[in-house]
Write a structure and sequence with these properties.
Blueprint: H1 3-25, H2 27-141, H3 144-162
Helix pairs in contact: 2-3
InterPro entries: ATP_synth_b/b'su_bac/chlpt (IPR002146), ATP_synthase_B_chain (IPR050059)
Pfam families: ATP-synt_B
Membrane topology: Single-pass membrane protein
Length: 163
């Protein structure tokens, strides 16, 4: 054999002896136990990650549902506010029209009353003027006791008819 082959043989024998010692000492059990523990820890971490992912997905779904509900509620509030604003505007317009109508009617009534008062005042002045004129004419035309009686009677009649 050649020197090189001999060195390789001794390396192979040393390796086999080393592996035999490791197997005898139970190193393979320690390695397997360590690997099992590490595998269990990784599996637990994966399970925890899966559970956290599911919780996060549930929270996202819950927040999306709440967002949709809030948007729907906001939309209904806006719709109700618009309807209320339209109702108030319509009500205010109606009240304003009623107010203008009442004020116009009151003004017309005051004008009519003022016209009646003016007519009554003119009639009173006309009656007074007519009675004075009649009195003056009768005094000139008649004399004595008859004249006084006729004037008084005529004045009473003119005043009662004109008022």
């Amino acid at each position: 054999m050649h020197e090189m082959e001999l060195a390789e043989l001794w390396v192979a024998i040393a390796f086999l002896v080393f592996v035999g010692i490791l197997l005898y000492a139970g190193a393979h059990k320690a390695i397997a136990s360590t690997l099992d523990k590490r595998g269990a820890r990784i599996a637990a971490e994966l399970e925890e990650a899966r559970r956290l992912k599911e919780e996060a997905q549930k929270l996202v779904a819950e927040f999306k549902r709440k967002q949709r509900e809030a948007e729907a509620e906001a939309e209904s509030i806006v719709t109700a506010a618009k309807a209320e604003a339209e109702r108030l505007a319509s009500e205010a317009k109606t009240k304003l029209e009623d107010f203008v109508t009442r004020r116009t009617k009151m003004a017309e009534e005051k004008i009519a009353q003022a016209e009646k008062q003016a007519i009554a005042d003119v009639k009173a002045v006309a009656a007074d003027t007519a009675s004075r004129a009649a009195e003056g004419l009768l005094r000139v035309a008649t004399t004595g006791e008859v004249a006084e009686r006729l004037i008084s009677k005529g004045l009473s009649e003119v005043k009662s008819k004109l008022n």
